[in-house]
Each structure stands twice: as structure tokens, then as C-alpha cells.
Automatic annotation (TrEMBL):
Pfam families cross-referenced by the UniProt entry: PGM_PMM_I, PGM_PMM_II, PGM_PMM_III
InterPro entries reported in the protein's UniProt record: A-D-PHexomutase_a/b/a-I, A-D-PHexomutase_a/b/a-I/II/III, A-D-PHexomutase_a/b/a-II, A-D-PHexomutase_a/b/a-III, A-D-PHexomutase_C_sf, A-D-PHexomutase_CS, Alpha-D-phosphohexomutase_SF
Organism: Polaribacter pacificus
Obligatory cofactor(s): Mg(2+)
Record carries keyword NAD: no
The protein's name: Phosphoglucomutase
Record carries keyword Transport: no
Length: 569
């Protein structure tokens, strides 16, 4: 605690403004427990960039941690691209302080001689990714904490391809940031280098989104849609995108349509949480809608609910959505005679294997990377000779084509509506099409458990859980022997039955995946952006006819619950 207090006292110097000094002094004087959490570490880049609670301190999002990150990025850009007029695009979401934080970041960049393109108002994250390429920028930054609670904000960095930073850039930028003192941040803005952007980029993005996300689907106006932005940025683009694409029967959840960083109508503005879409589903039942779509605050994730075989609204998970989207996209390529064995789709190590089965059935390769869309964007960069069809991950994100290099709820909303409208026009439904996909391949059922462990003690507990899972591996799950243990930290795939070891050709990450002889998979992964450890479960079985879907799903659900009980989770 003495060391933490010494760290905190550094923030009482003239380097920091009066308001910050007063906040820290009050914490020191009151001997607050909060002081330790604010200073026990520096804010770090995870799978989604830098994300944390707002407030003063090295482990908080504030003027100085953002300023230091931006100064480090500026220094790095100048080393990478010497003697060049550098350009960076900046976007921000609906969160508290996002407007002032985005201007602060613009100030630091401009103070370092960098041309800044700053969105005039809140915009979806995928539009920032698009803008980096559209405006020929060297980097991009978005101020967002995605679906985290209201007290959070964050900072994501994009490279000149429009994808989030990946190795080696991320480590090199962090090294630049860590080498700096807070006193070295240049806050002396050069307003001449800051240009506001908006309508022109919106128009270009709408056109590209409609071009990539719509196909030759009939009767779009017959599809009845309920849409909610969950108080976030998607309200600025998605209703207009739907209208321009020909979807005129759209009902917007008005109570959630106004951007608001408090997210007053939901416990969590996360479309992965069923509760977040309750108001939208209530409206859907009132107007007899075919599909419900809800997006998170920065509009990169989307949640979908559709009518099941009994006509009831059923929430789909990210694995189900990405599987059907992938199948639909590949079919469009096939129908146009564009498949020649040189295409691929992208997925992640904790996402469903149904995507792999679907792609294989068309002779299309599935490239699998670590969790996070930056790895799917990297695939596009690493394999320029191959054509990218689309890609997704289980956490409710999908990317259509390569014009955006991050998960994109705007274009994915159009794609979901195309699937639903096409199915309806052909006497089917979104859900029936999904069940037919199970019949053709396997019925996969996934489940996610997140265990929250906050603070310094929580981080130590999560670390110990991973150590235990590595050193004392499970040998069976629900009566099936564990055949393989994939350890992405050591890059070793071990056959627990024969003892044979092979190397894994994926960047190192603190992830473990158990795979049994019957195809069951359980993955353990500490979150890179939140104080939690996640367990991903995947089970499968054959489905002979869609009429047996309910009983098959019930059996798979029961299997997952038995495994959870076995693992004491």
C-alpha cells in the first residue's frame, strides 16, 4: 500500500490539473480502498484496446492516460512514417465524456503535427474503420467502451488498413507509451490541423454497406422489423440504411432511440443479454414483427430475435447468427459463379465449429484466429491473394466483405434482414433456415459463463484458475474422454490419451480449450478488457428433421448443464 500511495502522490504535481490533484488528494486523505485499484497497474491494451472505469489514476480512463496513449501513438507513427504528413481519423460513441475525450485526443495528435479528421458527432465504430480507408489515413481511434456499464470508457486504435492494431504494432505502441512520462504529453492543440467530418463519410459508408450487405432479395417491404439502438450510435445510420435498401416496415423502439450514456432502460446495453432486447421483443409481439434487431452502444455487435416454429420470439446467439450469415453469403457467391476455391471465411477459436462445417460443404476454407475481430482483419491483410467472404465470432459480431475491417452491426443488420426477407418470400423463415442448416450439418449448441472477479485480488484469482486448469486437466466430460487440450499460451496441442504433442500456429494467448472424443469443446479465457474469466461450451449432435429440433436442443442443453456441474462452475 505504501508503494501505491507513492505512485498516487506523483499525481499531486503541477503536471496534473487542479481537479485531478484534488480527486487524488481526497482519496489519499480518506485512506480510500479505491486508491489501490486506481494505481496498482497501468491501463493496458487488451483484445479490444484500452477500456476501463473513468476517473483519476494510472488504472483509469482520464485526460492523462488517454493523452499518454495518444502521445505514444504519435511518436510511433512519426517513426514508422518519417517525412510524411500523417493523418488520423477519430470517432466517438454516446458515453459520458466521449465528446471531450475525443477532442482531447485530437488536440494531442494535432499538437504533434498530425492531421486529424474528427467526426462532428457520435458515429458507429464500423464507420470509423471505414473512414480510415476512405480518407487514406495512417491510423484511426474510436472512443468507446462498447457494451460495458456507464462508468466505463475506452480507446481503440486502428491501423492504416482499417483493422485494429495487432502484433507487432500493439506491443511497439505500448512500449512507446510506457517509455513516456505524463509531463511529456503535448496538449498544445493546433486547430488548423483538425477537420470535422460527417455527412460525406456517412454517404460513402451507406453506399458501401448497401452494396456489400444486400442481394437480389424480393419483397423487402413485406418484412416487419423491430429495431433498437439501446441508446447508442446505430440510430445515426441503421434506420436510414434500412430505408435506402427498401425496408420500409421498420418499427423503432422510441424509448431507446435517444443516445444516452446512462442507458436508462437496460441493466446492460449488451445485445448478448436477453434482458437488453425485452422492450424490442414486447414491441415485436405488439406489431407482429418477423425479426428483432438490437445493437450495442458503438454499433459493432448485434442481437437478433426471430419467430420459432411455434411463432414465439426466440433470441439467437452469436454462433447461430454467424453460421446462417456465412451460409447465406457463400450461397450468394455460389449463385453468381464466384466460388473457385480461392475464397475464405473467418472465425475464432471460441466460436462454433458449425461455421467450419458450413464452409467446407461449399469447398470454402475457414481461417480460425484468436478472439477479437482484429485477428479476422489481419487474415485479410495476411492473405491478399485470397478473397474474403465474411467472418464472425460468437460474441454477436459479424463482418461482411472487407470494406470494413471490424465487426459491423450496420451491414450485418442489412444482411440479417436479407436472410429473413428471402426466407419469408420463399415460404420459410429465418429460424427454419437455421434448422435446415443443422439438418444438413450438425445441431450445435453453445453456452457461455462469465465469472466476474474484480480488482487486484480478482486478477490473482483468475490467474490461479488458469494455472489449475493447465496443471490439473480434466480427463473426461459427461462420459466422453478428453482427447485434446489446446494450450494457446504454450502453443501446444496435447493428445491426453496418447501423450502426443503438436504445435499450434496461432499467436500466443492465455486460452485453454478441452475437446472430447464426442466433439464437445470447453474453452477457458480471461477477458482482455473486463475483470472476468469466460468459459465457452459447445456440444453437438445429428438432427434428422426440423420437427425434432426442440427435443434435440433440450438434450444438448441438458448435456451442457451436466458438464457445468461436473466442472464445479
Amino acid at each position: 500500500m505504501k508503494e501505491i500511495k507513492e505512485q498516487a502522490k506523483l499525481w499531486l504535481s503541477d503536471t496534473f490539473d487542479t481537479e485531478t490533484q484534488q480527486e487524488i488528494k481526497q482519496l489519499i486523505d480518506s485512506n480510500s480502498d479505491d486508491l489501490a485499484d486506481r494505481f496498482y497497474k497501468n491501463m493496458e491494451f487488451g483484445t479490444g484496446g484500452m477500456r476501463g472505469i473513468m476517473g483519476a489514476g494510472t488504472n483509469r480512463i482520464n485526460k492523462y492516460t488517454l493523452g499518454k496513449a495518444t502521445q505514444g501513438l504519435s511518436n510511433y507513427l512519426q517513426k514508422q512514417f518519417p517525412n510524411k504528413q500523417l493523418k488520423v481519423a477519430i470517432a466517438f460513441d454516446c458515453r459520458h465524456n466521449s465528446v471531450s475525450f475525443s477532442k482531447l485526443v485530437a488536440d494531442v495528435l494535432s499538437a504533434n503535427g498530425i492531421q486529424v479528421y474528427l467526426f462532428e458527432d457520435l458515429r458507429p465504430t464500423p464507420e470509423l474503420s471505414f473512414a480510415v480507408n476512405h480518407l487514406n489515413c495512417d491510423a484511426g481511434i474510436v472512443l468507446t467502451a462498447s457494451h460495458n456499464p456507464p462508468e466505463y470508457n475506452g480507446y481503440k486504435v486502428y491501423w492504416n488498413d482499417g483493422g485494429q492494431i495487432v502484433p507487432p504494432q500493439d506491443t511497439e505502441i505500448i512500449n512507446q507509451v510506457n517509455s513516456l512520462q505524463f509531463s511529456e504529453i503535448n496538449f498544445n492543440t493546433n486547430e488548423r490541423l483538425i477537420t470535422k467530418i460527417g455527412t460525406e463519410v456517412d454517404e460513402a459508408f451507406w453506399n458501401a454497406s448497401i452494396k456489400n450487405g444486400t442481394f437480389d432479395v424480393k419483397d423487402r417491404s413485406d418484412l416487419k422489423i423491430v429495431f433498437t439502438s439501446l441508446h447508442g450510435t446505430s440510430i445515426t445510420l441503421i434506420p436510414e440504411a434500412l430505408k435506402r435498401a427498401g425496408y420500409t416496415n421498420v418499427h423503432i423502439v422510441k424509448e431507446q432511440a435517444v443516445p444516452n450514456g446512462d442507458f436508462p432502460t437496460v441493466k446492460s446495453p449488451n445485445p448478448e443479454e436477453p434482458e437488453a432486447l425485452k422492450m424490442a421483443i414486447d414491441l415485436a409481439n405488439k406489431v407482429d414483427a418477423d425479426i428483432v434487431i438490437g445493437t450495442d452502444p458503438d454499433s459493432d455487435r448485434l442481437g437478433i430475435a426471430v419467430r420459432d416454429l411455434d411463432g414465439n420470439m426466440k433470441l439467437l446467439n452469436g454462433n447461430q447468427t454467424m453460421s446462417l450469415m456465412t451460409d447465406f453469403l457463400i450461397k450468394q457467391w455460389e449463385a453468381k459463379g464466384k466460388l473457385n476455391g480461392n475464397q475464405f471465411v473467418g472465425s475464432t477459436i471460441v466460436s462454433t465449429n458449425l461455421v467450419n462445417e458450413v464452409a467446407t460443404s461449399y469447398g470454402v476454407e475457414t481461417k480460425v484466429g484468436l478472439t477479437g475481430f482484429k485477428w479476422i482483419a489481419k487474415m485479410i491483410k495476411d492473405f491478399p491473394a485470397q478473397e474474403f467472404i465474411g467472418g464472425g465470432e460468437e460474441s454477436f459480431g459479424y463482418m461482411v466483405g472487407d470494406f470494413v475491417r471490424d465487426k459491423d452491426a450496420v451491414t450485418s443488420t442489412l444482411l440479417a434482414c436479407e436472410i429473413a426477407a428471402n426466407a419469408k418470400a420463399n415460404g420459410s423463415s429465418f429460424y427454419k433456415d437455421l434448422l435446415q442448416l443443422y439438418v444438413k450439418n450438425h445441431f450445435y449448441k453453445e453456452h457461455l459463463i462469465s465469472i466476474v472477479k474484480k480488482g487486484m485480488d480478482g486478477a490473482a484469482q483468475i490467474k490461479q484458475m488458469m494455472v489449475d486448469l493447465r496443471n490439473n486437466p480434466f480427463t473426461q466430460m459427461d462420459g466422453s474422454k478428453v482427447q485434446f487440450l489446446y494450450d494457446y499460451q504454450s502453443s501446444i496441442k496435447k493428445n491426453l490419451i496418447t501423450g502426443e504433442e503438436t504445435s499450434i500456429d496461432i499467436p500466443k494467448s492465455n486460452v485453454l480449450i478441452y475437446q472430447t472424443e464426442d466433439g464437445t469443446k470447453v474453452a477457458a479465457r480471461p477477458s482482455g478488457t473486463e475483470p472476468k474469466i469466460k468459459f465457452y461450451f459447445s456440444v453437438k449432435s445429428k438432427l434428422d428433421a426440423i420437427e425434432n429440433a426442440v427435443s434435440t436442443e433440450a438434450n444438448l442443453d441438458a448435456k451442457i448443464q451436466r458438464i457445468i456441474k461436473e466442472l464445479n462452475l
